[in-house]
């Protein structure tokens, strides 16, 4: 592989305004190798970031480089980039094989090379048995995988996926996640955006958090989480007798309070989420109760953002 | 071999080809998948079927002999066709005059400036005089009953004024065919009348100054067999003489100048039969004033290779064989007319309006643009390849369509040969000119769609109307400078140039058409190309007009690229 010295993705004090609205505000970023999750609620600047990377818009300030090249002026970096757009739109009348082959030829492959590569990638994303069906007949998850296949067909070094799990059913989600992890293991640079913390958590530890166009945090998810875990969290347990289960919890150290929001529900308040979770299995076994579910309502991006923003103030 | 295992064949150029091929193919398949494409292409085929049905109808009709000069008809219903009446010098507008009918055999006349102004005797008179009759034929019917009735002796009134005023050459404002009574001024028991018109009687006539009188005897009618009208159809074809003075066929490859033509039916007479009678023999016509009576003057251009004018004396070569001439002229008119209006103007405008306007814009609207723009393709390349894809579909369609119509007309067309091979280059040229138009409009419409995705289509419609109007102006008068600010002008010039190359004698046919009254619109639909840089060469004109169209197309692609290249795509 033709690895250059420069990082795959480099943003240097990059800002983008849409008139009065700020899309991205003074973001500096360098990403190279492995899977990176781009986290942020809707409107945080994820799409703006990706559009800048894909050369569709021009930065208002600062610079964007893909493999050291400005993508607004030069399309050559796209030989090494695979992009999975958020858009659902495809050529519905084409078969998946046709679709991937056609787009592969835009990388300068011959018809035969393109056909061969597209069979290979469609097999990789698990669609080899349906690749001669029209895209219009595909389910959401299958379409998402076709999009990933088309982005991978030329064996890119950098893969950018915009909300690849959005709207997929759990099975499709699992298979797409494993595809992304596999790509990371192959040593490629992968950017995955999402507004759901849990999804990213299952794929990678390396994250970038965007909020209101600003770069809020960058680094290892666990390091960030550890900080977060020390803050008050709730754990909601649905069980037959919440009160008897609560009696077991109140005496434990990480727990500082219990409440019963509705019949059959127990809410535990804790200062150390991981410690509390490690206690859970033994205490439930001890209570001999049938527990139907355990929820972590505070363990989401909103809480994380709330914490990060609060910490910044 | 590099580290990705690419062979030597994998150069930049072949990769560019492959990308181009992929986008062209994608565009073709997208167009194929749209219903509107099939509708607009189907309408084009329907239009051609319709025009061809007109053609077949017209070709069959023009093969029947046509009386181009109309002399097989009998306007005055006297049983003699006009051609026969012309030969005998009788009027075809007066039923009393026909070959063999009685006429005034002139025995003498007094002109307005003759000296002796008195005559007497028993005659048929024609003119104006003071007449002292001893006998009047009150039943005299004259010769020109319809237009100039004889003097009505039953309604004669006294002349106004007196003798004085008559001798003072006072003019009586008489209608032709009337008389007035002056009275018996010389007391010889005979009244004197002032008469104007045709009359018959015995007496003495005094012609006043500046008046004239003719007299003679009426001949007895003789019977002349009326000719069948069919004799006066195709009775006088186009004749040409070669250098040895032998009669040859004119529209052959040899171009001619000088005096030609032969009055096969002998009707080339001076139009005024009265003066023909005067010298005792028929006067021959020389209305083209080249000093040779009853001939046709052919004029060629300075190179001598193109007939640019045909000027015939009256009634010479005036009714040529229609299968030979009208067929050929009609055939060429059809091809040029269809090529210019149906292909260049209609297909040339509507195909791009339906197929090219959304080449890039639709991709934006459908949200599939990102699929293509995330590939290592410059946006400019993308526009160019899209246009190539569109041009493959529309240009291929137009060329195939023109060749099919061409094969049909070449098979059905007039002439001795089974298949008119000389038509095919013209049809191919029409297809080619239309393809150039498609390229230019494709680039223009696509660029308009890029500049303003919302209002571009309105711009295109306004532009289309302008183009349509300029197209018609160019067909009617290619010299009008304003129309050259349009794409159609150059495309129509291209057709003109190709026609000049493939059928160099088209101008000759057009000239023959207008000179010999062969009903046609060839000179309306075809003019020699204007932009030939003064060379009169069809090849130069073709080069100039196609270069112009290419320049317009590439300028528009360039503008489209710079607009699209700088656009942020949300």
Quick take:
Chain A has 313 residues and is an alpha/beta fold. Chain A is built from ten helices and 13 strands.
Q: How would you state the average pLDDT of chain A, rounded?
A: 87
How many beta-strand elements of chain B?
11
Strand content of chain B: 5-15%
Q: What's the end-to-end separation of chain B, in Å? A: 39 Å
- Unreliable residue stretches of chain B: 272-280
**In CATH terms, what is the architecture of the largest domain in chain A?**
3-Layer(aba) Sandwich
Strand order of the largest sheet of chain B: 1-6-2-5-4-3
Instruction: Identify the quaternary structure here.
Output: heterodimer
How is this structure best described in words?
The complex is a heterodimer of chains A (313) and B (570). Chain A contains 10 helices and 13 strands. By secondary structure, chain A is of the alpha/beta class. Chain A folds into 2 domains: 9-226, P-loop containing nucleotide triphosphate hydrolases (Rossmann fold, 3-Layer(aba) Sandwich); 233-297, Alpha-Beta Plaits (2-Layer Sandwich), CATH 3.30.70. In chain A, strand 11 (255-259) and strand 12 form a beta hairpin. Chain A is globular. Chain B has 570 residues and is α+β, with helices and mostly antiparallel strands. Chain B has helices at residues 12-32, 35-62, 82-88, 163-167, 273-278, 326-355, 361-366, 369-373, 379-412, 423-451, 456-476, 487-502, 506-515, 522-525, 538-565; strands spanning 104-110, 118-136, 157-158, 178-183, 192-206, 213-218, 240-241, 247-248, 258-260, 296-300, 307-312. In chain B, the strands form 3 sheets. Chain B has a 6-stranded mixed beta sheet with strand order 1-6-2-5-4-3, with no helix packed on it. In chain B, helix 2 runs parallel beside helix 9 (379-412) and helix 10 (423-451) packs parallel to helix 15. The longest helix of chain B has 34 residues, at 379-412. Chain B is elongated. The chains are: A alpha/beta (313), B alpha+beta (570). The interface between A and B is medium-sized, with 34 and 30 residues.
């Amino acid at each position: 592989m033709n690895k250059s010295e420069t990082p795959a993705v480099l943003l240097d004090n990059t800002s983008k305004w849409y008139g009065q609205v700020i899309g991205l505000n003074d973001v500096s970023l360098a990403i190279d190798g492995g899977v990176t999750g781009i986290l942020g609620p809707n409107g945080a600047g994820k799409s703006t970031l990706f559009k800048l990377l894909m050369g569709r818009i021009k930065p208002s300030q600062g610079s964007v480089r893909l493999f050291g090249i400005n993508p607004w002026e030069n399309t050559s970096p796209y030989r090494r980039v695979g992009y999975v757009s958020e858009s659902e739109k495809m050529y519905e009348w084409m078969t998946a094989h046709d679709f991937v082959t056609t787009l592969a030829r835009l990388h300068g492959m011959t018809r035969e090379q393109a056909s061969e590569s597209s069979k290979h990638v469609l097999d990789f994303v698990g669609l080899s048995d349906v690749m001669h069906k029209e895209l219009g007949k595909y389910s959401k998850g299958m379409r998402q995988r076709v999009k990933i296949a088309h982005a991978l067909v030329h064996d890119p070094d950098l893969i950018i996926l915009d909300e690849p799990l959005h709207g997929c059913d759990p099975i499709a989600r699992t298979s797409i996640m494993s595809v992304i992890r596999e790509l990371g293991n192959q040593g490629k640079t992968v950017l995955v955006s999402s507004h759901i913390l849990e999804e990213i958590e299952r794929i990678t530890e390396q994250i970038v958090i965007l909020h209101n166009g600003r770069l809020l945090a960058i680094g290892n998810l666990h390091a960030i989480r550890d900080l977060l875990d020390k803050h008050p969290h709730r754990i909601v347990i649905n069980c037959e007798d919440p009160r008897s289960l609560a009696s077991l919890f109140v005496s434990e150290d990480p727990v500082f309070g219990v409440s019963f929001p509705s019949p059959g529900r127990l809410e535990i308040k804790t200062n150390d989420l991981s410690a509390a979770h490690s206690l859970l299995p033994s205490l439930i076994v001890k209570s001999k109760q049938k527990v139907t579910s355990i929820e972590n309502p505070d363990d989401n991006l909103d809480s994380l953002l709330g914490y990060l923003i609060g910490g910044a103030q | 071999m590099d580290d990705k295992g690419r062979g030597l064949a994998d150069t930049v150029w072949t990769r560019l080809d492959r990308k181009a091929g992929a986008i062209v193919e994608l565009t073709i398949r997208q167009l194929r998948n749209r219903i509107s494409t099939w509708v607009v292409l189907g309408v084009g085929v329907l239009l051609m079927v319709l025009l061809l049905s007109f053609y077949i109808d017209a070709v069959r009709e023009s093969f029947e002999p046509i009386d181009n000069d109309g002399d097989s008809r009998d306007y005055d219903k006297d049983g003699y066709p006009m051609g026969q009446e012309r030969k005998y010098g009788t009027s075809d507008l007066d039923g009393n005059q026909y070959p063999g009918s009685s006429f005034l055999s002139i025995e003498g006349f007094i002109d307005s400036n003759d000296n002796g102004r008195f005559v007497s005797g028993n005659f048929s008179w024609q003119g104006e005089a003071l007449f002292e009759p001893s006998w009047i034929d009150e039943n005299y019917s004259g010769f020109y009953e319809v237009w100039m009735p004889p003097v009505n002796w039953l309604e004669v009134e006294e002349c106004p004024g007196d003798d004085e005023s008559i001798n003072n050459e006072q003019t009586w404002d008489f209608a032709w065919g009337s008389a007035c009574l002056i009275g018996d001024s010389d007391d010889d028991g005979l009244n004197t009348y002032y008469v104007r018109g045709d009359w018959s009687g015995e007496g003495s006539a005094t012609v006043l100054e500046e008046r004239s009188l003719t007299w003679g005897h009426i001949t007895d009618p003789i019977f002349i067999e009326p000719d069948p009208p069919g004799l006066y159809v195709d009775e006088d074809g186009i004749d040409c003489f070669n250098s040895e003075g032998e009669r040859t066929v004119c529209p052959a490859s040899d171009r001619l100048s000088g005096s030609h033509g032969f009055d096969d039916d002998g009707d080339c007479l001076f139009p005024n039969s009265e003066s023909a009678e005067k010298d005792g023999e028929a006067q021959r016509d020389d209305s083209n004033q080249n000093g040779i009576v009853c001939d046709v003057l052919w004029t060629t251009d300075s190179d001598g290779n193109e007939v640019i004018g045909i000027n015939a004396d009256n009634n010479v070569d005036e009714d040529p064989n229609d299968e030979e001439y009208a067929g050929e002229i009609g055939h060429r008119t059809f091809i040029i007319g269809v090529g210019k209006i149906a292909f260049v103007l209609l297909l040339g405008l509507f195909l791009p309006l339906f197929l090219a306007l959304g080449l890039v814009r639709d991709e934006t609207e459908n949200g599939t643009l990102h699929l293509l723009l995330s590939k290592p393709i410059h946006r400019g390349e993308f526009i160019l390849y899209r246009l190539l894809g569109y041009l493959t579909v529309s240009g291929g369609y137009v060329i195939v369509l023109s060749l099919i119509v061409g094969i049909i007309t070449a098979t059905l067309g007039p002439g001795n040969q089974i298949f008119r091979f000389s038509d095919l280059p013209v049809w191919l040229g029409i297809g080619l000119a239309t393809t150039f138009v498609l390229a230019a409009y494709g680039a223009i419409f696509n660029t308009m769609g890029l500049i303003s995705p919302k209002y571009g289509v309105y711009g295109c419609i306004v532009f289309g109307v302008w183009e349509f109007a300029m197209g018609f102006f160019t067909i009617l008068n290619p010299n009008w400078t304003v129309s050259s600010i349009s794409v159609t002008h150059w495309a129509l010039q291209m057709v003109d140039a190709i026609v000049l190359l493939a059928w160099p004698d088209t101008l000759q046919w057009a000239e023959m058409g207008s000179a010999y009254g062969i009903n046609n619109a060839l000179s309306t639909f075809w003019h020699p190309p204007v932009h030939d840089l003064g060379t009169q060469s069809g090849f130069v004109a073709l080069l100039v007009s196609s270069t112009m169209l290419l320049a317009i197309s590439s300028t528009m692609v360039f503008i489209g690229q710079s607009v699209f290249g700088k656009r942020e795509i949300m």
